[in-house]
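QA checklist item 7 of 12: single-chain prediction sanity check.
[x] sequence parsed
[x] length recorded as 389
[x] structure emitted
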Amino acid sequence: MITIPVKPVPESVYEKLGFYWYRSPDDSYYVADELVKVGESEADAYYAAAAELYDMYVKAGQHVIDKRLYQLLDIPPEMIKLIEESWEDDRNFHLVGRFDLAGGLDGLPIKLIEFNADTPSLIFEVALIQWMLLRHNNLPEEKQYNSLYETLKESFSRMRKLHPGFAGSEAIPHALFSCFDSWIEDENTTRLMEEIAYESGWITGFEYVDKVFFSAENGIGTSSSGSFDYWFKLIPYEFFWREEPELLAMLSSLSAGGKAVLLNPPYSILFQSKGIMKVLWDLFPGHPLLLETDFGPLRGKKCVEKKSLGREGASITIRDKEGNKISETSGEYDIFRSVFQEFAELPSDAGGYLYQAGVFFSYEPCGLGFRREKGIITNHSQFAGHIIG
């Protein structure tokens, strides 16, 4: 594969944009000073794969609901009603997710690694940062498969047209955007989503989750702005059932009572759980986009052991054909079920970096970006933009 060196964007410019996580915890640069060269046919193949995979996920989600397979996905009983009601209510639009894919370059076949369907990271990087790298280096700005910002605007507009608020056909929907008051990355990503919704004609607000009120009478809102129709939370659903079960019960009541719609919708946890990749393999055995997946070690095959609701490359173990550990990452997700997925080769460059593609999906595929690492890809692995050529 080919990478093209570029001049890094000055840190002062990043900070004006609100991008403060340009360095990793070890003080290395988080954004690679190289762009991945991707052919048009390769980019088209990434997008086609994401579109086909999303359709397969919808079928798998329906299968899980019909067959009551929630336990296989590590989803507790208290989430089931919320999931099923959101699945049937069209106001619950799946706003955004990111497919992580192996292959696609160097002649390697595209394979699904997982779908970050609930609270995907890299929105800021794919939508803005890689475009800035082109602009800063006087490269043609259209030479990217990157319409994430514009497509998210279209998705908010689509939601408004299909379900124009709760008060009538002429109402403007109100959306509150929230995250924890802990990480600047989460906050500025959430604020970016708020800005996109605002540009789409929504009335919006932002508040940290600990300052949001949840009321059976008044719904979800803030003391200064009142109630909102929609609540976008950059907070995983498993946090609610593990840490705030009473709040989860309130959210279920508010959703069922038509007081609020959650973004991403509760059913996105079906797609987020890596257990669904076993369901996909059962429904589509041998599909060229899938890797063999099971809940036990794969006999005679190198594989990756993940946790069903693990995140950010944590709690990962790579095992050889005999089941021996080759490498692993630490993490806090060992309480969840193990999922064993056949190992897939990642494209690599001359410097030894391995590249994992990420394709965003919001009603349609809409943004390509890469993470790179000399080992297991994690949340702190470098982000690499791309250029079509």
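[x] summary fact logged: The longest strand covers residues 365-373.
[ ] second reviewer sign-off
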